[in-house]
Amino acid sequence: MVVGVVAAVFAAGCAGGTVDGHATAALDGYAPSVNNQDPSRGIPGIVTVEIPPGLHVTGSQRVAYPAIPPMGGPHDARWAACDGVVYDKALRTENVVHSLEHGAVWIAYDPARVGAEEQATLRAKVENKPYMLMSPIPGMSDALSLQSWGHQLVPDNADDGRIDQFIVALRENPYTTPEPGATCSSPVFDRDNPPPYDPSPPGPDAFPMS
Questions:
Q1: Taking Cα atoms as reference points, which of 100, 105, 97, 93 lies closest to residue 138?
Q2: Of 79, 100, 122, 198, whose CB is crowded by the most CB atoms within 10 A?
């Protein structure tokens, strides 16, 4: 019964609007429901991996993520604020992964390959939207990548229609989120001067994914 209530509330919020919390008619099929709990599986190019809820690491520990950006795993006990925040600086990966566990969608991009116009298009999908965050990762393997817990999509560009499909299907999805209902507000996380991204490979003492 609780799951049904959560689904009903979510569906009500997704009827007849835009991706700032409401699916348009064209995106209705990507809104999760009891009968279609993970609509993202219908998105061409989606990558899904079963990842159990992650263990916590300390603020100085690294995690041996298999790829950057990761889509889940062990993470810092503090989550990056994900209530519609567009970060200008690259964030410590371990903090962002905790945001994914709370139901956030993370848009990551390489600032050398995604220009100002595309960044503005992406910013409009994130800014002031709950359970959304965006940050650069210099030198990442793909120019642009979307992550939610256990899900990843590499769009062709900022105008790729699959981006909105991904957001509608997975943002605060109660069926794919390990901690549904957890907040994205993070008063102890410094939005203006967040923990920085470390581009160096994790050392042999890094916390393992398993």
A1: 93
A2: 100
What is the rounded distance in angstroms from the CA atom of residue 187 to the CA atom of residue 88? 19
Per residue in 147-198, pLDDT (tens digit) is 999 999 999 999 999 999 999 999 999 999 999 999 999 999 999 999 999 9
Find the helix or strand (DSSP H, E) in which 75 lies: strand 75-76
Which two three-digit tokens encode residue 101? 């566990």
CA dihedral sign, ordered 89, 209, 44, 38 = negative
Q: Which residue has the tokens 């809820």?
A: 53
Q: Which residues contact 148 (CB under 8 A, 6 or more apart)?
A: 40, 71, 100, 103, 104, 105, 106, 166, 170, 171, 173, 176, 177
Both tokens of residue 170? 């997975």
Q: What is the phi/psi pair of residue 138, to 5°?
A: -60, 130
* DSSP letter for each residue of 107-162: EEE-TTTS-HHHHHHHHHHHTT-TTEEEEE-TT-SSSEEEEETTEEE--SSTT-TH
CA gap 93, 62 in Å, rounded: 9
Residue 38's region, left for phi above 0, alpha for psi from -120 to 50, else beta, is beta
Written as six digits, the tokens of 4 are 């049904």
Contact between residue 175 and residue 32 where contact means Cβ atoms under 8 Å apart: yes
Contact residues for 210 (Cβ-Cβ < 8 A; gap 6+): none
| Full-model pTM | 0.88
